[in-house]
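Q: Predict the assembly, please.
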Amino acid sequence: MKYVDEFRDAELGRALAGEILASVDPDRHYKLMEVCGGHTHSIYKYGIDDLLPDNVELVHGPGCPVCVIPMGRVDDGIALAREPGVILTCFGDMMRVPGSDGTFLDAKASGCDIRMVYSPLDALRIAKENPDRTVVFFAIGFETTAPSTALTLKRAKAEGVPNFLCMCSHVTIVPPLRALLESPDLRLDGFIGPGHVSTIVGVRPFEFIPADYGRPLVTAGFEPLDILHSIRMILAQLGEGRCEVENQYTRVVPYEGNVAALRVMSEVFELRPHFEWRGLGFISQSALKLSPAYAELDAELRYEVPGVRVADPKACQCGEVLKGVIKPWECKVFGTACTPEHAIGTCMVSPEGACAAYYNYGRYARTRGEEATVA
Amino acid sequence: MNAPQTKAPAGREQRILEIIETARSKRPRFKDERITMAHGAGGKATQTLIEGLLAPAFASETLDQLADAGAVTIEGLGLALTTDTYVVRPLRFPGGSIGELAVNGTVNDLAAAGARALAISLALVLEEGLEADVLRGEVEAIAETARAAGVEVVTGDTKVVERGLADGIYVNTSGIGRLDPRATLSPAALEPGDRVLVSRTIGEHGTAIMLARGELGLDAEVESDTRSLWPVAEALISAAGQELRTMRDATRGGVATVLNELARASGVGISVAEAEIPVRADVAGACELLGIDPMYVANEGVMVAVVAPGRAEAALEALRSVPGCEAAKEIAEVRAEPPRMVLVETAFGGRRVMDLLAGDPLPRIC
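A: Predicted assembly structure:
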């Protein structure tokens, strides 16, 4: 694949890994967080951990948009799908996120009409094809996917599609980062910045991280060379005593972001005063809802959804795992109440979350650790 | 996953690892309240259904091997018996149709067991309102595919259900074949050092079906790979004989699922060299866009074979001489460690675990 394979060149990868090894202080331990779930996926897919020195540790951040959806929101989605005549539509990986009484897949099996779509426009098309049904798009994602939801809502309004509604659970990236950084026991040395979100919001919104919290951030692309390059850039900053926001993903991310996308978002959405994140609790002004101009398209206003908060069990310590304060196995519910089959927190919901990865591959990680000791 | 301070696991961590290990090594229990689509996808949910509900109910040593076909001995003659039901939407897709799948799939389950198909049965469940021309087309496809595979349709059954209770046509075929005495195959026969071969490029059938459903707005000329695998099986048996450990027809769940099942059955590790996996560029591109790994995508004409190291090269050469298998490759090696796991050496130079999927591969948003 042209323009893709070039960024997966194993030889260049080895060269970068060599530069990284040469640039680290062997007496120091580095903890870097990749904020975005897409980065976690790439790191896992290409085995990038293996190319890093032992004293450079990657911590998976809060940026997986499906895993952070709390149980109560999943329950609300299922309640909507049970309303007569409703077709609920959502992205594929939302289908397996557990609510308090099962997933969308389970609800589908018990008779709800829940369909997977690849774009919000597909949901709008389904609405036009089924004028006697009500089609609800269960919108999730960070600023990356919010503009496409916004454009779809604009089109639905302009075309007057009366049976298309949106249940909005879009979230924003800066508030959870700030919440993590506010924590007194934070043990992170730097951040790999979210590339896709940054194509929309630009680089500027992350400048508070070096300015207020003294941690460097490098916005990175999603190919393995992008990620290694961004790690190299963060380590260079740490080595040289610099602390700033840098952009590794210049081929896609403009400094100011996508102004047109931001404009349409501000027209269609407004900030919720607060929103609950699975495993992280309530974070103020961290999510979007439809603005008053689009109220007629808001499924939460058209239907009565339970809106019941399903508390994460008190023992869940996803926040501490995310901050790098504890290891997955140190969490009180890990492996007992919280397993991949019955996940409680965000770190276990995503197959690439720190806890799910440790549960599934912990034995293997351990043999790897032993190999490292022997070597 | 990097362990920063490497030390032997102690105390609580060791206990947790033991709890997980005990939970994983138990026979899965089927506790779901309803059947979901995940139970049909070939991953963990399917495994739970089969190993937790079906296999224990019938208490058959042959069934417990969970092979593509079961062995039956009649007066000293070794036979293999298999059955499979075909449900696919759309009924016709680039490169094939449900009728072709129904013959080849059963012939291939027998071939993977080391048996040449002799006879098959044909059962049709038809939906009220189905156009006769559609049915005629599938009957012709079945007849033509059976002729090409050298297998006779010797018995059959038809049922019609009301509109809405089936999706056009469902087909069941059962097949019987004679086990080739030159080979002794078992999914539990893998030993460290063995080599894993695939008979051709992977992921084409599943990709062709996804594209044919027209929901993705993607255009690519990907065709299903449906074909009889008996020529492949025969070439492998001739080349490797008793050094051929096992063969698997990599259908739903793809090559990755087959490798996981073999690693579990034999208690070995399997190390896959990602750079060696043969995938066509258009299949790789479509999977990339959907965030799906072609190793989990269904095939209808790909054989996975495990061969002792000494015969691996001869087996590969024999494979490549079979028409359509010029792209056959050695993709993996069996290792002692870590037991019951499949690891991938990525083309980029790292490693990862290739686990069973929970259910269908789902497109990712992030």
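Confidence is low (pLDDT under 50) at residues 368-375 of chain A. The first strand of chain A starts at residue 30 and ends at 36.
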